[in-house]
Structures are given as C-alpha cells and as structure tokens.
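Field reference: "sequence" (input) and "structure" (output). Example, Abasic site processing protein:
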Amino acid sequence: MCGRFTLIAPYEYIVHRFQIQHAAGNEDYKANYNVAPGQKILSVVRGSKGNRMGYLQWGLIPSWAKDKKIGYKLINARAESLLQKPSFRDPFRRRRCLIVADSFYEWDHRDVKQKIPYRFTMKSGELFAIAGLWDSWTTKDHQVIYSCTIITTEANELMEPIHDRMPVILTQSDEAKWLDPATETKELMRMLKPFDPEQMQFYEVTQDVNAVRNNAPYLIKKM
C-alpha cells in the first residue's frame, strides 16, 4: 500500500514540471514532509485547455456513496482489480489524475515489535507522478468534495524486501496518456506496473514519521 509521501519542491517548479495551464491553491501550498490520508493533496487533471492543478482530498469518496467515511477505506486502489471494483471502475475510465510527489514512505513489517520506516526516492531527486483516480461527492447541504485514491501494484525488486506493494509511478512519457480521456483501457493497464528499480533508492528514516502530527525537514534525513 501507500500511506504516506512527501512533496517539498517549490510550487513554481511543480507548475513547470507538469506543464500546468491552470493552477489553483498557490497561496495554500507549503512543503509537506508527511503527507497523510485525509489531507488535501496536490494533483493534476486534464482540463479543456490543458493540465489543471489543484487539491483533492486523499481517500476516494465515490459519487454514489451514502457516507463520506468510506474515503478512509479507499486511500489505495489495487491495479489488478480496478475494472471489477464499483468504487474504481468508473473513475478509472473517466476521472484519472496525477498525484505529485518527490518521495514516499514504507514500513518494514517483518519485525512485529518494531516497524521501521524507509523513504523511497528517485536517484535523480526529481519529482514523479503517482497514478491516481478522482471523484466528486455531494453532501446533503450541497457541498462538493473532490477526492482521490492512489493506485498500487506489486513491488519491484528494490521494494520487495520491505513490502509487497508499491504506488504506481508513471514514466514521464506516460503521464499525458494517463490523463488523456481518449487513451484505451489496454494502454492504461500497461502503465500499471512496478517502476524501474534502477532509477530508485531508499534509506531508513526516523520513526517520528509514524505520527502524522510530525511534519518537518528532519523526517527525511537518513538514519
């Protein structure tokens, strides 16, 4: 699964990197060293005039849901079952997004007494896009909540010793295709694979990252 990540790059660089034509929320942006479910996360969608960037609440609330609390159970979507699960089937076909990150955390669960956190990044230090789905849900008082989920796949060789799942990280050449509503299902499914381990690295970080309240630069320092 993917339950925490970071986004600390300058806002202007993110806009440039993802070729954003319309951006919202510049005044709300700040470096986040411990992004967690339930928070609003910076995401990219395809607009009528190009890429749009804004915030989606992490934890998908399907448009047909009776209670928004379902979002806490839908922070991740398994790539293998996107076309079978009612919560993900329609968003996969119509409402795909990029979730912007520069690293993600995962915990080694082999020691039941102690969960060791690790930070996974690109060797280049570059930003990357995680494949996501989004949906909108309307409350009884007509407020609209836009939410999202992170798609996961089986672990690559780098990740396997720590966990059996990892987020789907898209190649830059696939990002535009992922957002394009005309991309065929077969092509979309091709993208949902483990990322090249040769381009990634990881290292142990402080267990302080376990607590969502902790959010500071020291969380990403190598132990």
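The mean pLDDT is 95.
The helical segments are 11-17, 86-94, 172-179, 185-191.
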